[in-house]
């Protein structure tokens, strides 16, 4: 049993705390935002969470998140459903002619999801009731306590110090762990960092959940659209564009946003509800990855980073919470199998496991995003995007084939809900050939919807 400090009570911090406490550790979670979580029913209206930029932006939990949560922390799923979280089969969002008859095994595509404040309020309530978990809110960590290259605790605003056997940074996208380590005399972690380049224009709705018409992420010329079911008769819709595409910035105006969405037959029914006021806009989202073992040596021991504090990307694929959950499970397992007194070994093993098991998920997301952003920029320039990367052509063909073949629709759904990897798909005998036969000659944007010119006209004419 170790004394563990978890920095940050966001999605990963709370999940990590519960998993570690369940495994016998004494866990204290330190959260900067002072507000106590309201009851889930009041969380959307009442919870002020400036520490999480994306707090009010659309979120959907992947089916893999539900699968892992049901296995690891089933009471979270129970509490989420009790709070009005929606259990929904993501394959069922496709029209019947695309998915065919229901088959054995299709239940794997089920998820349970909610608006982010509701989801986090549920996690916070379950974590608060978990033995060996203490959550201290209004506690801002400002640096690290060290002995040589070993982190032994944290410093906090107000002059507090807290000691621990292990510090787990779950401070999210804006985590300052890198600068704290350098200030403490450690070597600089390896950091890759760039603006992901996308802008989100999201709205939440309430009413009668629309019938599903297509995948939750839809790719069109100049914009992607997310249609995300939520809790208690709510859902959200987001348009995602390139940040360089100035002509689309009018989407921050609700009337123009409505006019734009009206042109997309698969997404327009999702705007038939009571909208929350205004359009939530988020830009300047970073892709960031940090490595804490440099040239084979940990920059410090006694500290690890989990979830967005380790790596984060543009979120249009909706993978952040699932990657964070898998990462937290991995940390629990490494600590379970490693002598906690062997601080060096803990950090090395977690680094190796992270590199092998979750870094490919991050890299895959980055790969998709880079292509998609380049494609959106090509759309704005009036150029057809044809990169010299057969995997991109294969990915587009997979989607196109999923529109006409129920088997491929399932394979595509497994990919997008993180139940399978691209390698799983490519290794199935005959499947890549079938995908190329059915999808390779599809139009660049196979879904019905406006081209760039019509989209601009809708925004400007409203
Ligand atoms: C626009 C947008 C949409 C998204 N949509 C999805 C989606 O549909 N599905 C999905 O799975 N993921 C989505 N994500 C990603 C998801 O939000 C993150 O992966 C997830 O929140 C990461 O959890 P975390 O605990 O690592 O960080 P966070 O949830 O950001 O929590 C970090 C916490 O640390 C606290 N903190 C920071 N610094 C300190 C400090 N010094 N002292 C004390 N506390 C501190 C913060 O206040 C905060 O509470 C989206 C992200 C964005 C930006």
TrEMBL record:
Keywords: Monooxygenase, Oxidoreductase. One of its GO terms (molecular function) is monooxygenase activity. Gene3D superfamilies: FAD/NAD(P)-binding domain. InterPro entries: FAD-bd (IPR002938), FAD-dep_Monooxygenase_BioMet (IPR050493), FAD/NAD-bd_sf (IPR036188). It comes from the Bacteria. Pfam families: FAD_binding_3. Residues 3-177 form the FAD-binding domain. PANTHER family: MONOOXYGENASE, PUTATIVE (AFU_ORTHOLOGUE AFUA_6G14510)-RELATED. This is 2-polyprenyl-6-methoxyphenol hydroxylase-like FAD-dependent oxidoreductase.
């Amino acid at each position: 049993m170790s004394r563990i400090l978890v920095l940050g009570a966001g999605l990963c911090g709370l999940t990590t705390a519960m998993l570690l406490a369940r495994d016998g550790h004494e866990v204290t979670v330190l959260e900067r935002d002072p507000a106590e979580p309201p009851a889930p029913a009041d969380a959307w209206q009442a919870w002020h969470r400036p520490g999480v930029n994306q707090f009010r932006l659309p979120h959907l939990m992947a089916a893999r998140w539900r699968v892992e949560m049901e296995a690891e922390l089933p009471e979270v799923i129970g509490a989420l459903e009790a709070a009005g979280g929606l259990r929904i089969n993501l394959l069922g969002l496709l029209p019947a002619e695309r998915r065919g008859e229901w088959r054995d095994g299709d239940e794997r595509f089920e998820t349970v999801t909610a608006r982010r404040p509701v989801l986090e309020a549920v996690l916070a309530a379950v974590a608060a009731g978990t033995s060996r978990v203490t959550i201290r809110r209004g506690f801002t960590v400002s640096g690290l306590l060290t002995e040589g290259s070993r982190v032994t605790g944290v410093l906090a605003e107000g002059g507090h110090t807290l000691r621990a056997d292990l510090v787990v940074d779950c401070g999210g996208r804006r985590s300052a762990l890198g600068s704290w380590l350098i200030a403490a005399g450690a070597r600089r972690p390896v950091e890759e960092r760039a603006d992901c380049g996308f802008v989100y224009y999201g709205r939440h709705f309430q009413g009668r959940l629309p019938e599903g018409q297509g995948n939750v992420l839809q790719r069109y010329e100049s914009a992607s659209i997310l249609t995300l079911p939520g809790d208690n008769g709510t859902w959200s819709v987001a348009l995602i564009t390139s940040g360089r595409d100035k002509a689309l910035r009018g989407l921050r105006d609700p009337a123009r946003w409505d006019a734009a969405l009206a042109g997309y037959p698969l997404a327009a029914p999702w705007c038939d509800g009571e909208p929350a006021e205004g359009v939530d806009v988020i830009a300047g989202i970073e892709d960031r990855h940090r490595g804490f073992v440099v040239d084979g040596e940990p920059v410090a021991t006694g500290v690890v980073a989990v979830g967005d504090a380790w790596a984060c990307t543009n979120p249009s694929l909706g993978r952040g919470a699932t990657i964070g959950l898998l990462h937290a499970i991995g940390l629990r397992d490494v600590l379970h199998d490693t002598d906690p007194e062997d601080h060096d070994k803990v950090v090395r093993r977690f680094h190796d496991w992270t590199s092998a098991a979750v870094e490919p998920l991050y890299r895959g997301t980055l790969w998709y995003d880079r292509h998609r952003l380049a494609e959106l920029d090509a759309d704005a320039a009036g150029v057809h995007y044809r990169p010299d990367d057969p995997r991109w052509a294969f990915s587009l063909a997979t989607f196109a084939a999923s529109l006409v073949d129920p088997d491929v629709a399932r394979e595509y759904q497994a990919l997008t809900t993180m139940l399978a990897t691209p390698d799983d798909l490519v290794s199935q005998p005959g499947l890549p050939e079938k995908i190329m036969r059915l999808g390779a000659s599809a139009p660049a944007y196979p879904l019905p919807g406006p081209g760039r010119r019509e989209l601009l006209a809708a925004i400007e004419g409203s």
